[in-house]
Each structure stands twice: as structure tokens, then as C-alpha cells.
Amino acid sequence: MQLKPLGDRVVIKVLSQEEKTKGGIVLPDTAKEKPQEGEVVAVGSGRVLENGQKLPLEVKVGERVIFSKYAGTEVKIEGEEYLILSERDILAVVNK
Amino acid sequence: MQLKPLGDRVVIKVLSQEEKTKGGIVLPDTAKEKPQEGEVVAVGSGRVLENGQKLPLEVKVGERVIFSKYAGTEVKIEGEEYLILSERDILAVVNK
Amino acid sequence: MQLKPLGDRVVIKVLSQEEKTKGGIVLPDTAKEKPQEGEVVAVGSGRVLENGQKLPLEVKVGERVIFSKYAGTEVKIEGEEYLILSERDILAVVNK
Amino acid sequence: MQLKPLGDRVVIKVLSQEEKTKGGIVLPDTAKEKPQEGEVVAVGSGRVLENGQKLPLEVKVGERVIFSKYAGTEVKIEGEEYLILSERDILAVVNK
Amino acid sequence: MQLKPLGDRVVIKVLSQEEKTKGGIVLPDTAKEKPQEGEVVAVGSGRVLENGQKLPLEVKVGERVIFSKYAGTEVKIEGEEYLILSERDILAVVNK
Amino acid sequence: MQLKPLGDRVVIKVLSQEEKTKGGIVLPDTAKEKPQEGEVVAVGSGRVLENGQKLPLEVKVGERVIFSKYAGTEVKIEGEEYLILSERDILAVVNK
Amino acid sequence: MQLKPLGDRVVIKVLSQEEKTKGGIVLPDTAKEKPQEGEVVAVGSGRVLENGQKLPLEVKVGERVIFSKYAGTEVKIEGEEYLILSERDILAVVNK
């Protein structure tokens, strides 16, 4: 991965429709707040609390996650679509 | 459960109308802020306070809860409807 | 009470007009922010401060309280109307 | 006083026009943010800081105060008009 | 002064146009955010920080100050116009 | 300087167009958020943190600074135009 | 660099289209929130936490970064276009 996200941000590789249906989780188009699925490819060094302590992220590289569709910033590297978003926009890890 | 929610989030299985009427609690359609009933199926590891302490969630897997209807994100797994929401959107636990 | 509210929430039984007039307190319809009267029937375990300390609620089960009319979520259990609201929406306890 | 306000709230007896003119303070109708005068009749137990410390209120029962006209909730007890408001909506104490 | 402001509030005697021009400071009518000049006639006991410490005000009775025109609440006492405002709406002290 | 700014505020002498072009920095009119250049002529005593510690300002009297055009309050003293603004509206110091 | 940014701000030299395509990262025009690429040329002394501790910035002079297009303030020095923005508007560092 060429990108090293800052703070509590993560880089996510957005999964194609085929990859998603394999997992058995369907994220309905009619959902109130459309969620998306992806794979974590890079994580920031963590969030700094007001007491100066650095809090490492909960998600790890290689994990599959569900996140809010309208979160984050799109980046394209060598034809692949990525998203940079804050960990707080990630809803859940998908156990494989 | 395939989903492991992050932070203070929980995964809730929304109860069907029949399941709800059994419980004796009626959530009126005319309510100012429409509440819903469901069962907790997965909980996050907790909320991190500004002093670095991790606060475990109050709700537990298997508990029935009432939550605000407009909270959370819908996810469908193998035909079942689930909601991922923050514990602060849960109003009360229903004692069985 | 079948409901156990979470955090700093309380469950309140809304008083009928007859019950209210007995108390001698009149909450005018023309008030800027319409207040209501009710009886506390269940209280949450308290609010967690940023230092991790749990702060128990000030109100107790059985107390009569005045609260802002537009606060909270309505729930109906066996024909009775209840409200789940945050303690910070309760204005005062009525001494009997 | 039948009402015991919660937290940092106070109960205020709104002064009639005659009572106000005696005090010599005129609160102009054309003021940008219309203030009102009243007498404190009950005070809450105080505001809880994030370190768990309870901070008692600055105002005391019997003091005359000036407060913002649009603050608080009206309550009528035995024909008298009262207001329940947060101490932070009180601007100043009037020295007699 | 009949008024004792609460917390971080101060009472200010608004200066008349003649008094202002003497000081040599011109506050232009065309300014983006119109400032005003006045004299501090009473100060509150201070602001309470979240650690419980009381922070005394920086301004003192008798000082001339510049403040934002749209801040505060007007009060008239014996024909004189006063303003009650928070110290954070005071921009600077004018050295005489 | 006749003005002593409060807290984290500073007084800035806005530079005329000739003075600005000498410095070699051009602040384009078409910029998204128009910046301006000026010289610090007075600084407040600092910002108070929530732990009671007073944090002195980073900028010093005599430094040239760039700040957001829409920040602050204009004041005119003896024909000179000044701005009173919070240090957080200053973007950078210009090294001479 | 003539500019010394304050606090958690950084100065960034915006990369021209040719410089960007060399890096292999394409920031699509159709992206929801348009990101941009640049090189850090100056960094502030850091952000002060509420406990008084100064937190140095994560980015360093010479690093290539991706940031949100609508963040920051444009400055032009000797024909070169720069941006002054807060470190929190920087999404990721690009590893060369």
C-alpha cells in the first residue's frame, strides 16, 4: 500500500459486487443509510486522547468491514478504487 | 453472528410483529419518536473515555431492547434484517 | 415495571388530568415550553462521567416530576402510557 | 415551595409590574434580548463537573435576580406564576 | 452598582458618543462586526473550570473596554443604560 | 498601543498594499478564503486550559502574520486601521 | 520557506498535474469529496492538548500528502501556489 493514513483514519479497498455476494451479507439499496463492504489495507497510528495517550485502532489490515456509504474520500491507485475514512465511520468487522 | 460491531455499537435483530405482541409492549404508530423492539445479537468492545479507560456496554447479547426507530444502519444477512446502532440509541432493556 | 432504562434515562408514568389537578399544580396550555407531570417508575443505572465515575440519578422511583412535554419516547404497556426520557429533561421533583 | 428543581435549575417567582418598579430597575421593552426580574424560591442541588465534583449554585433562595425572558418553563401553582430555569440563564443578582 | 453579575458576566456602562470621541478611538459604523466602548461597573465571581477551579475575571471595575455590539442584555437603572455580558464578548481593555 | 486584548486575542495593524508587495507574498483575490497580512501590535495574556494552566500566545509583538480576511473586529485609532482577532484565526508567521 | 505556520497547521506546495501523474495515484474528478496531492514544506509547532501537553505533528517537511480539496487557505509566494491547512485535513502520507 502506497498510502499511510493519518491519526484514526484507515484505507479501505472497496469490494466489487461479486466479492460481496460471496460473503453472504446483503446491504440493501433501500436501506435508510446505505452501508458498504470493503477490506482494510492500511491503518493510521491511532487517535490521541485529551490526556496525550495514543489509542491504537480497533480494525486491522486484512479485515473485512462494513462502513457508511457516504463516509470518506475516494482515491484511485493503479486502477483500484480505495476509500480513506475515519475509523468511527466503520460500523462492524465481518467475521470470515 | 458474522458481524463484530466496533466501539459502542451493537447489532440488533429486529423483531417481527408477532414476536413483539407476545411481549405485551405496544409501541404506538402515533408516537412522537417511533420506537422499535429487537434482540441484541452482538456487542462492541466498548466506548473509550477521554482518560483512556474502556467502558464496556450495558446491554448484553440475548437481551430484548427498545430503540429509536430512526437510529442505525440496516444490514441483511441470510434473509434476516439486522440493525447496527450505537448503544446510546437504545432506550431500555425489556425484562422478560 | 418491565422496562429497565439505560444510562441516565428514566421511565415515567404520565399522570391523567384528574390525578394532576389533585396535586394543585397547574401546567398552563399557553406556556412557552409545555411541561407535563408524571411519576417515576424506573431509573437507569446512571451517567458515566469522562473520568469513568458512574453518577447515580437524582430522581427516585415513586417521585412525582415535571418534565418538558416534547422530551422522550412514548411506550404503551398493558394500556398504560409511559415515557422514556433522559434525566436532564426532568425539571423538578414535586414534593407531596 | 412544592417544587425541588434538579441539578443546576432554580424556581423563580416572576415579579409583578408594581413590585418591579419599586426596585428602580427598568427592563426596557425595546431591549435586544428582553430580561425579566424575579425572586428565587427554590434551588437545585448543583451542577456535576466532569471530575465528579458537585458545584453548588451561586444564587440563594430569597435573592432577586434578572434573567433572560425567553429562558425556562412556566408553571402555575395556586394562582402564582413561576419559572423553572437553569442558573446559567440568570444574568445578575439585584442587591436590595 | 445595584447588580452583581453571575459567573463570568460583567456589567458595563455604555459610553455616550461625546465620552467616546475623547478617547481617540473610533469604532467605524461600517465595521464588519460593530464594536462598542464602555466602562466596567461590576464583575462576576469568575468562571468555574471542569476541574472545579474558579477562574477570576481579567477585567476590573473602572476599566474601559471594547466589546461586540450584538453581545449582552440591556438594562436601564435610574436613566442610565447598562449591558450585562459574558467576559468572552469583551475584546480588549483600553489603556487610558 | 492603547489596546490590551483579552485572553487569546491579538491586535493587528493591517498592512497597506505597498507594504505587502515588498514582502514578496501575494495573497490572491481569487483565493477560496481570502487571507490578509498584518503586523502584531499587542497580544493578550493567553488562553486558559480546562486544567487552569494559562497558555501564552505563540505570536509576538512585531511579527508579521497572515490571517483569514473575515476574522476579527475592526477598530480605528488615530487614522490607522487595526483588527482584534483570536490567535486561532492567524494562519502563519511571515519570516522576514 | 518564508512562512512558519501556527499550532497544528502545515504549509503545502500543491503539485502540478505532471508531478501528480508520476506518483501513480489518480484522484478522480468525480470523487465525492475531491482530494488533492501536495508536498509538506513547513509544519507548525503542534497542537496543545487540554492538559497543556504539546503534541507534535505527524507529518514532516518533504512528505507527500493527500488532503481534502476544500480545506485550507491559498497563498502565492514568488509565483508558486501554497496552501495553509490544519493537519486534521490531511488524509494520508504517500510513500515514495
Automatic annotation (TrEMBL), chains A, B, C, D, E, F, G:
Organism ancestry: Bacteria, Thermotogati, Synergistota, Synergistia, Synergistales
Assigned keywords, A-Z: Chaperone, Cytoplasm
NCBIfam families with a match to the protein in the record: PRK00364.1-2, PRK00364.1-6, PRK00364.2-2, PRK00364.2-4, PRK00364.2-5
InterPro entries, sorted: Chaperonin_GroES, Chaperonin_GroES_sf, Chaprnonin_Cpn10_CS, GroES-like_sf
UniProt-listed CDD domains: cpn10
Subcellular location as annotated: Cytoplasm
PROSITE patterns given in the database record: CHAPERONINS_CPN10
Family per similarity comment: Belongs to the GroES chaperonin family.
Summary of subunit composition and partner proteins: Heptamer of 7 subunits arranged in a ring. Interacts with the chaperonin GroEL.
Stored HAMAP family: CH10
Identification of the protein by name: Co-chaperonin GroES
Function: Together with the chaperonin GroEL, plays an essential role in assisting protein folding. The GroEL-GroES system forms a nano-cage that allows encapsulation of the non-native substrate proteins and provides a physical environment optimized to promote and accelerate protein folding. GroES binds to the apical surface of the GroEL ring, thereby capping the opening of the GroEL channel.
Cellular component GO terms held in the UniProt record: cytoplasm
GO MF, one example: ATP binding
Organism (species): Acetomicrobium hydrogeniformans
Chaperone found in the keyword field: yes
Pfam families in the cross-refs: Cpn10 (PF00166)
